[in-house]
Amino acid sequence: MNNLKTRDKLLSKVAADFIGLDTVYKTADGRKSRRIYLDSTASTLMMRAAHDAVEAFYNHYANTHSILHFSARISSEQYHWAHERILSFLKADPEIYTCFFTGSGTTSGINRLARVFRDYRPDRHIALISLMEHHSNDLPHRKHAKKVIHIPLNSHKGRPGCINMEALENELKNNKGSVNYVAVTGVSNVTGIINPIYDIAELAHEYDALILIDGAQLVAHLPVQMSGHNNPNRNIDALVFSGHKTYVPGSPGAVICRKDILENIEPEEVGGGMVENVFVESYEVKTTFPDREEAGTPNIPGAIGLATAIDVLDRIGMQEIFEDEEKLVLTAMDKLQKIPGVIIYGEIDCHICPRAASISFNVKGMDHGLVAAILNDYHNIAVRNECFCAHPYVKEMILDDLLDAAETIAEEDIEEVFKLKSGMVRVSFGLYNTMADGDILEKALIDITEKAASYAAQYHVDGNGNYCHNHFKLERENHFSVSEFIDTYVGG
Predict the structure, then answer these.
(1) CATH code of the domain covering residue 395
(2) 356 with 194: CB under 8 angstroms?
(3) CA 34 to CA 434: how far, in whole Å?
């Protein structure tokens, strides 16, 4: 009990200590209020502990790969710790797995592994992915695998849920010996639906296919165990996640992969740090991990900040974090379902498909961009809209809405109107969100649905298809400009 109380206390402390929680903007009706940040699936806010750890580290900053002066030794030790901490957090046996960092979040890591998997088993040309994937876990496989097969989702009363395991097994069975790997998201970035990744891994391994998990929306919200399962077929071969979705904007992506998959394939990125020797006519790649996978000077502060956040999350306990966020998501979804005109997408019965972090919806008779603009301009609620880099998934869910709209649209206007209607509004939660944030969202959506025509009259669509307020602009006092900051610094 004492341990649980300690964790609850730490959770409360950390959740209230994120940079940007107290940011205030003036809204279109003249009120000043605190921003309600509900866009964490795109990027989270910065955890204060991670920010402060990096700030403290900068006093000792130097490049890594040396221990001959104090700062280089400290940098090398802490950068090494960052790799080890992420492996332990994900319960990935360090004898079997390595962790290395990549530049642009999950995207660069999945591109890297798509090439690695292609070269690891060149005789196997098929990759299987689900229909709910973000473009980052779809396009790299289309580019590097000879053939990609998209696996459909379970459907309950017309609502898409998790990946269809029967369809997955049929493809594995029908293409046995040709399927190289299965790549699937742990949590959908659109609906927050959680896939049964260990069941998928077990099924893939039974047919001698590898398993790659897009962990971008998984790692910050649920406990993950990559190895050590009683049934080794439930182990995960590789997982990639993003630091900027794990409470450390500016940090790198992380790749966790079995060493035996990587060790016989020369990395495509070459340069300093990953070679043992370089001669005039040849060079020798290091055999040690993660050095051979990280060419050039890495993002040392970013990696240390990410590992700091991971360490803090681990001390709180990911199961406790998941249960706390689950209550928030389910309560918000229950409130939204009761608002007339609000349509929530994806399976809404969480006993059938559990959810984490995200809810996507539309308001009948209103374009997603208009709803998102009103939430921001009048209620200071930051959300995201459109297709969230998951076009096939989103368009499948809103197909009926588009067909209904087509019946009333003149043929010459279809392309322009469809662009405005092809999407959803997404609210997504992080460690720092509270039940009060959900209440504010509920009140805002009730207000919007009741005053839809009045609000719509205040907006126009610009040349880029964005809904813009006819009169309201972000006030200068609320604005931020890097160049103005520099001018003040230099002038001061």
Answers:
(1) 3.90.1150.10
(2) yes
(3) 14
